[in-house]
Fold this sequence. Notes:
mainly alpha
Amino acid sequence: MTPASAADPKRWWALAVIALAQLMVILDGTIVNIALPSAQRALGMPDADRQWVITAYTLAFGGLLLLGGRIADLVGRKRAFVIGLAGFAVASALGGAAAGPGTLFAARALQGAFAAVLAPSALSLLTTTFTDPRERAKAFGVYGALAGGGSGAGLLVGGLLTEYLNWRWCLYVNVPVALAALIGAQVFLRDRSGRRGGHLDVPGVLLGSGGLVALVYGFSEAGPRGWTSPWVAAPLMAGVILLAAFVWWQHRAAGPLLPLRIFRDRSRAGVFATMGLATIGMFGVFLFLTYYFQAVLGYPPVRTGLAFMPVSVGIVIGATQIAARLLPRTAPHTLMASGMVLAAAGMVLLSRLTVHAQYVPHVLPGLLLVGLGMGLTFMPVYATATVGVPTQDTGAASAALTTVQQIGASLGTVLLNTIATGATGRHSRAHGPADSGTALAEAMVHGFSVAYWCSAGVLLLAALVAALTVRRGKPSQAGSKPSA
């Protein structure tokens, strides 16, 4: 068992190392978004293929998370953390030096694969390093702020690097960051060795990872192809079948990839459901506001990135200054539900935007509310999701939580984008042909408004789920039987 955190004088330095690695993984989900047009021109990338710069990363990351979490349980969390960091640095250097689209796609897939090893080990290391409730709240406040705010910060960093250096630095920047974290890991991280006598559940890997990859791919293709396309329906159906077979196999496997006892506790199941609904409702905001800032308000890349910063500031304040201080004496479900209500209120404010809106009086209040709500929600989610899980299963539980977040983000982006696109088309048809830039912008903003109302509804549902399922206390041990 890991010693109490109070006995480890290096625990706060360990938090800095873990936070640095987590920030790098989260940033990379969005940092290349603004750089994508420049990369496409430089590499001669066809329009039909450019989405793979994003999709290759999300497919590998979301599809391999369960495997990455089990690797952390088997080989040891610190060792998995180091492997993930080193591999991520090599993949980033390969992508930055890419001479053609194929190399860039492969590098992004490798980044996602090593991120799938890195992210669960980081969360489980944090869980086992901080055992004192007050210190745990502070540590997870930092972690939750980075997990929620990293995407917005990635847009800003990507804009700065693209505008003042070039798109390759959106990948090269990971190399020195990873090297610094590697040095810190060797000095400050403490962890016991991997699980003796354990073995990898190969059928579970094939079924679980295959199902997740198919599901994420289907969601990613739904936007450009439409829900009725066979390239969407077939992967989604295959994903559902494979995941159903995965659940059946986990009941039978001697050493399951994802021990289902993790979900037997109602509070923990509620935390996972809250995270899934929160990401479905929240992550569309980045996509819509990116188009709103650039296509409607005419912001350049760096100004677009700066415009997102209030979301990150709100998350940091909500997670570290409010939730972290309240969690030791406040029920987790109170913070989660309150955060979701605040975020829903922010979405309602954003739904009132027009083509003539001004940033400070009209956009800023909604962004701050969304950020505060995310910080209030994500911090207690991360802090309580793995509490009470047997030590040998913390990697799998951490991976499951991150998987829920990734699937929710993918599903939410596609669903909300479909809703916004449909509403935009209906508005254009109802108001005659859009033969001017203003008419097109008005139709687009109307579509965004409908999607924001849908987001608000999903977030209120998340608040209800948290209030009804997450008990006042912490989740209990995930079953009484030790892991096989």
